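1st attempt posting a full record on here, be nice pls
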Amino acid sequence: MDWMETTAARRGDPRALWPEVHSVVMLGVNYGPDSNPLAILQQRERGAISVYAQGEDYHELIKKRLKTVARWLAANAGGDVKVFVDTAAVMEKLLAASAGLGWQGKHTNLVSREFGSWLFLGAIFTTLELPPDAAEPDHCGTCRNCLDVCPTAAFPEPYRLDARRCISYLTIEHKGPIDRELRPLMGNHIYGCDDCLAVCPWNKFAQAGREAKLAARDALRAPKLAELSRLDDTAFRALFAKTAVKRAGRDRFVRNVLIAIGNSGDAALVPDAERLLDDNSPLVRGAAVWALGQLDPRRLAALAPSHRAAEADPSVAEEWSAAATT
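the predicted structure (as tokens):
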């Protein structure tokens, strides 16, 4: 079965969220990919979307399953229950490691001997007193694969992540312009990043996920950057309906696409970057300035006088000024 169930030891203090809780049941669902997630990184004219976001949004699927298990637990053993799937400040990885589902690797993510790096986590808080399972020991040994593969050097040391440099954070959570120093390092990552997960040697035991709703949509496996750059808000919502990508919103997503376009080295994408210099979103316009400057600095210089004179947004004006000095 893809599901594993166990009871976590009391670490991470769940009582801060619910004072009445006595035990936490942690569950994981396998979402292992059916192909190498790193292969897309060589197709620079296409965008790399994290494996977990290529299918339906896992939050709703897992929450429904957690509620089923929680109702069964309450009906058969009594007590009150609450379920969490990235919906509160629950330390899922720490609790899952305490519960024996796996251990936190040097990349800070959970690693399972059975499923490798590919587990979604959910938690059931209960007022029941349940016996704790044994924690899983660390099996990373001397391996540094996950640390060394990170394009932006987001791991200052093992077991420590600097989120400000993490591509997953930058492409999903970060709301403003991405640091110009980091843009060339992001390659064609447009939503999330699987690099540190994909290189883990424990994935040799991983299995492809069998949940149909989590399976990758063909349209999201290797989408063309040119097509993604043309998405307006309506088209964005239609393409990414029921997926986690919709969280980013159209403007933030197209910003990411433009950074990938700038990193592509593909002259055929110049018209797409140029067209977005006039986008309604300052975030998109600023990224378009950078992308066009990477692909065709002469064309950008020719367009600069008219566009800089009409630009009212300070962040975009800053992008034009930075482009003029490179």
